[in-house]
Structures are given as C-alpha cells and as structure tokens.
Amino acid sequence: MRQLTHILEKEVKDFFVTPIAYIVIAIFLIVTGWFFFSTFFLYNQASLRNFFNLLPLIFAFVIPAITMRLFAEELSRGSYELLMTMPVTFGDIIVGKFLAGVVMTAAMLAPTLAYPISVSFLGQLDWGPVIGGYLGALLMGGAFSAIGLFASSITHNQIVAFIVGAAICFTLVLIDKMLFFIPESLLNGIQYLGTGFHFSNISKGVIDSRDLIYFFSIIIVGLYGTYLLLLRKE
Amino acid sequence: MIHVDNLTKFYDHFCAVDGISLDIRKGEILGLLGPNGAGKTTTLKMLTGYFRPSSGTITVKDLNIVEHPLEIKQMIGYLPESSPFYRDLLVYDYLNYIAKIRGIAPEERHERIKYLSELCGLNHVMHKSIAELSKGLNQRVGLAHAMMRDPEILILDEPTQGLDPNQIVEIRNIIRKIGEEKTVIFSTHILSEAEATCDRIVIINQGKIVADGGTETLKQSADSQAIIQITLANATFETIEQGLKSIDGVEAIEKLDDPAEGNLSVKLTCRSETDRREAIYQKIKATDWILLEFHQERQTLERIFRDLTRQLNKEN
C-alpha cells in the first residue's frame, strides 16, 4: 500500500516537472472556455449545462494524452524492468498509475471552477447540477484514465497509445449519438454503453446507482485488462 | 542460497535457456560467461523474477520465485544491462524514489543515499538530471540503485560495460568488496574480468551450461593437450622434426616464424596425460643444438571459452 502512494506521488510529480501538464491543461482550458463562453450570452441562462455537454468529447482526446506515457514510456525506456524487479505488486503499479491519471484530471478541472463562480455573479445558479457535473466529470475522467492506461500498456509507442486510447473513448462517447442506425431491440443496450448518456444524467444532478455502476465497471474492466496485458509480458 | 533446477525459457518457439541447473552458495561471486545470445541475460532476468520461467524452478532461501516474488525481490539488487532510468529526474530524486519504494524508513533515507553516493562516486552529480550523465555515471547510478536496500544477493548484467579502464577497476573492487559478505552473480563477456573477480565461472552456450567451476579447475579440466614452445639455434627444422618426433606422446611439430637470424622456433603439441618436458629436454641435450627458450603454454580461460563455445556451434 505504501508503494502505491510512492508510485502515485512520482507519476504526478513527473507529470508536473515536464511541460506536458501545462500544455494539456492550457489546451483544455482554451478549448472549453472558448466553446462555452462564445455561446453563453446568447442563451441568457445562468447554467453550466453547455460546459458539461462539451466535456465527454473533449475528455475523449485530452485524457488519453495525459495517460499515454504512463506505461508506454516505461516500456520503451526499459525502466519497466527496474520497476518489476523491485518489491512491488502489479496492483500497486496499476492502481498507483491509475490514481495519478485521476489526480491529473482533477488538476485539469480545478481551474474551471472559475466558470461556475463567475456565472453565479451573473444570475441565479443552481448549484446542484454543478456539483453533480463535477462529480460526473471526475468519474468520467477515471473511466477514461483506465482506458488510457490500458491503451498505454499495449505498446511502447506513446503515439499509438494515444490513438488507441482516444479511439476507444471516442467510440464510447459517440455510440449513443448514433442510435438512429440501431435496430430497436438493441437500443437500450447500446444506449447503456454510451458515456454521454450516463454523464448527462449525473450532470443534471441526478445521482443514480446505474450510472455509478457504469463508470465503476469501465474502470474495473480497464484496470483488469491492463493487468492481463502486463501479466503476458512476463 | 539460490537453487536453480532445470530452468527453461522459450520465446515463442525459440529456446533461449535450455535446462539450466545451478546451486549458488552464500558469499559466492559467480561469473556468467557466454557469447552474445547465449542466454545470460535471460537467465539473470528469470533470477530477478522479471521473466517467468517456461519450466523449471528457482528457489531462493527455500522460497519459490513464482509463489513468493515480493520476498525474493526484496532480497535481490539488480543492475540491468542498459541502465534504463527515468531520464527527467535528478539523480538524488531518483535514488530517493528507489529508497521509498524499497521501503527504507524516512529518517534513514538521506544517510543511505549519502553512503551509496560516496561508495559509487556520485557526489558531484547528485543534482544533475539523469539524462545529462555519461554512460559510466549511469552505470554507477544503476549500481547505487541495486545496492539500495543492502541486498543479500546482487545480480549485475554486464556491470563494466561502457566504462573506462579506471572505472572498470573501481567497479571490480566494489564487486569484490561486496562479495565478501554478499552473493554476487554477474554476466560478462570480458574473460579477464571474470578471471580477476569471480570465485566460480559458469560458461553457457546456446542456453546450456557447458562448463562450471573455479577458474583453476576449469583450466585443468580443459587441458587435454599441452603446447610446448622451443626456440633453438644451430639446428634445422628437418633435424628437429626427426629428433623430436620419436618421443612418445608428441603429436605434431610445427615451425613458427623465425624469431631472429639463425634461431628456430617450433611448437610441439603433446598429449597431456604425462609430462613430456623431461624427455624433450633429454633429447635436446643429446644433440649439439643450443636451447634458447623452452616453455609450456598454460591454458588460458580465453582458449577454454573459445573451444567450448565454438565446438558446440559447429555441431549444430
């Protein structure tokens, strides 16, 4: 357990001593800030709904960019071997790196707290959906981090890791936007797979166990898949 | 201490290590020798628990490596072949991270890192990033990494690779110093290095052990032929050949390049069950040749190595 915190600490520190963190956070803030506020005044509503509607699509690209190096870099440099010959378990490594991804997502979301605060000055902001939205964003960040981690353990090429991770996340985001192609009998099942569907439930302020189960099951599947891939490398 | 039984490793269909059995005692310095691709690194990686053996068992202090990987990893310090570290970290931060993961108490960490940096000569680079270090310094960081938790077993994969001659001597001294109390296993393809540092040498070729023993025993066992070199004056090759061929046990006489005007050097290949030197000397004494040089070549480790590894490669 102590090893887990050391790995988490190191990964987060690594992220912030290299320029990646600042580049990713800056891009994220520019993109969300621009898309959100460019239409904000047209709606004339003190709500963050449009901001949260943007998040799944943007996360699908940004989070794999954060997580792509977690395993791919170690595999290409060979430091993975050093890590594995130290007294740490797979669980420590995988969960430590996964939590590092979640911490980075949180660090990226933190500056956006300025949006609800400034909006609340402009009108009556309902804080319920905002809190739900941030909780949902963290859950979605966790799910995408697990997918990104899995993609990163497939290959020792960070670009491949990014593309695979982004492709899986993107599919999950878009799948419930394509429902008109789908025969009626499969409709519910496919809709259940879509991230946007569950995220929009939570960001309305409705916290339903089905949505929580969805996000946690993606996290578990992603981490277990990572474990199986690492096991194969022995 | 370490007991390896019938260890085998397949990469898909390629057999990298083929049924190796070894017993390594505590306090032994064992050198693993072999040509490139012989399976040295694979064997070491299995000993560290990084690779899972395809079949066979490794037990360290009666603990099986597959069942108790963490306990064994705690006992082993490992220096990989191409010191792969986190390039963005400072040397101090890196060692500090290792100290944390290895479970060294916070109040002892600083002391331990200071001791290791002195032992490995890293004092002046502690605050440089690893990416800036030369190959030799990288190797020292690796050594400090391997010795972090004062391991009982030290596994080093080509520790002196890429170092300058002074550093090689230093590293050898460190290895010997550690080897007084610890078990050290290292691989190398520099033979003189193995000869100078090891108590015991294991030569592997194509995944199999072809020789195992102390340097002296290896030399003796491989001595099936004795080579004697003689330099004479006042003689011709024909007369020497006639004169010495008659001695029982001399199998071949070969003329070497003239060392100096009027002198003649010959190489005699003899069977080595009995010493032929006296008979040869008596023969020479009976003639009017002038004996300038007379010596029997000792088997060098290098020749043993070449004989053992080449022979096998030819068979396949």
General description of the model:
The complex is a heterodimer of chains A (234) and B (316). Chain A is an all-alpha fold and 234 residues long. Chain A has one domain. Helices cover 80% and strands 0% of the residues of chain A. The radius of gyration of chain A is 18 Å and the shape is globular. Chain B has 316 residues and is α/β, with parallel strands linked by helices. Chain B folds into two domains: 2-218, P-loop containing nucleotide triphosphate hydrolases (Rossmann fold, 3-Layer(aba) Sandwich); 224-298, 2-Layer Sandwich (Alpha-Beta Plaits). In chain B, a hairpin with a 7-residue loop joins strand 12 (250-255) and strand 13. In chain B, helix 3 (91-101) crosses helix 4. Classes of the chains: A mainly alpha (234), B alpha/beta (316). Chain A binds chain B through residues 2-3, 6-7, 10, 14, 17-18, 77-79, 81-82, 84-89, 234, and chain B through 45, 48-52, 70-71, 73-74, 76, 78, 80, 82, 84-89, 97-98, 100-103, 145.
Helix proportion of residues of chain A, in percent? over 70%
* Topology pattern of chain B, helix = H, strand = E: EEEHEEHEHHHEHEHEEHEHEEHEH
Largest sheet properties of chain A: none
CATH topology of the largest domain in chain B: Rossmann fold
